[in-house]
Design a protein that fits this description.
360 residues; FAD/NAD(P)-binding domain; eight-stranded mixed sheet
Length: 360
């Protein structure tokens, strides 16, 4: 059994951000991930202006990675669409490109990479398929995937499920989505659509389990049903979309956040706080939590974990509350119709709501 300190599980944005800060300060973090090469994770793909600023501080510039610039938000729901200018430039970038750049930056800074599938955590004892480790400090950064021994609570009666469809590049999508991120609001869920660096369109949905259940538990049938009811959404699903791979993840505990932790256990990213994806702030929370956890560890080692977790809880409480309220309103067609009218007549009010979901 190897002894490592600190040990980071998960080489996504949160884990890599922590690894970069720790390694730059002279620590020797071990960065464990199940994949030798970064994949295209289901969640993410939109980088807010604040996320872009935080990435540049870590040595990663979205523009240099070819990210698609985003200047405006289009809202679709019950009623006429509304268009809102974003405060600053945002970006559309695949998780494969983002995670690859962050992982390369972490390794260049001095983090040691290790490939293994973690099966279970018992205190500070980490059990993988190939190795076992004992750590004084453990940075848990596995995104929306829980590990045995550290699972987040799930109590929603009608939980949210995540789905992702990657549409192939086309002239039609380029015309509709250039410099735009779209948010399509449904009764029981929503879909965000943004172009990525290669011209493909990332369609990421969060829907209630009951919405899929009403379509016979068939995600493709559910998408077809949504397209039949929402013509703007249907226009994005160009011919051949039914043959494209559909990625899913179940029972996402949106709105949950860790209030505290035990000494040595630093929860990062979605393992610390899960903001509804319509806010577009999940990647920024991942990066900010990784940076904050690393700085806390450098100042106080393992004993700093409870204080760090409480401080992060206070920091994300406002954005989670506002994003949750926005989601609750967006799921109701009658309210959505009024909301779109307000957005068209007073876009500054929506801009203020968007700002309220940002992490300071």
């Amino acid at each position: 059994m190897r002894r490592e300190n600190p040990l980071i599980i998960g080489a996504g944005p949160a884990g890599c951000a922590a690894a970069i800060v720790l390694a730059r300060a002279g620590a020797k973090p071990l960065l464990v991930d199940r994949d030798a090469e970064p994949g295209d994770a289901l969640c993410g793909g939109f980088l807010s202006w604040r996320t872009a600023d935080r990435l540049r501080q870590l040595g990663v510039d979205p523009a240099e990675l070819g990210a698609h610039p985003v200047e405006r938000l289009m809202l679709f729901g019950s009623g006429r669409p509304a268009e809102i200018a974003l405060p600053k430039r945002a970006f559309g970038l695949s998780r494969k490109a983002l995670d690859g750049a962050l992982r390369a930056q972490a390794i260049a800074a001095g983090a040691e990479p290790s490939i293994d599938t973690i099966r279970q955590i018992e205190g500070m004892h980490v059990i993988g398929r190939a190795h076992e480790w004992q750590a004084d400090s453990l940075f848990l950064a596995t995104g929306k995937h829980d590990l045995r021994g550290t699972a987040r609570p799930r109590s929603a009666k009608d939980p949210a499920l995540g789905l992702r469809l990657r549409l192939n590049p086309s002239a039609g999508l380029a015309k509709r989505l250039t410099h735009i991120i779209e948010l399509h609001l449904f009764d029981g869920g929503y879909a965000g659509i943004v172009l990525q660096e290669d011209g493909s369109a990332n369609v990421c949905l969060a829907v209630r389990k009951s919405l899929i259940g009403g379509a016979g538990a068939n995600p493709i049938a559910m998408l077809a049903h949504l397209a039949a009811k929402h013509p703007h959404f249907a226009l994005r699903l160009e011919p051949g979309w039914r043959e494209i791979r559909l990625d899913t993840i179940g029972a996402i505990p949106y709105g949950w956040s860790a209030r505290t932790s035990e000494p040595g256990l630093f929860r990062l990213g979605d393992q610390a706080a899960v903001i509804p994806s319509l806010a577009g702030e999940g990647i920024d929370i991942a990066l900010a939590s990784g940076i904050a956890a690393a700085e806390a560890w450098l100042a106080g080692s393992a004993d700093a974990a409870p204080t760090y977790q409480q401080a992060l809880f206070e920091r994300v409480r406002g954005p989670l509350m506002w994003a949750g309220a926005a989601w609750g309103l967006a799921e109701r067609p009658a309210i959505t119709r009024v909301g779109l009218t307000v957005a068209r007549l007073a876009p500054s009010l929506v801009a203020r709501l968007v700002d309220a979901t940002r992490l300071v």
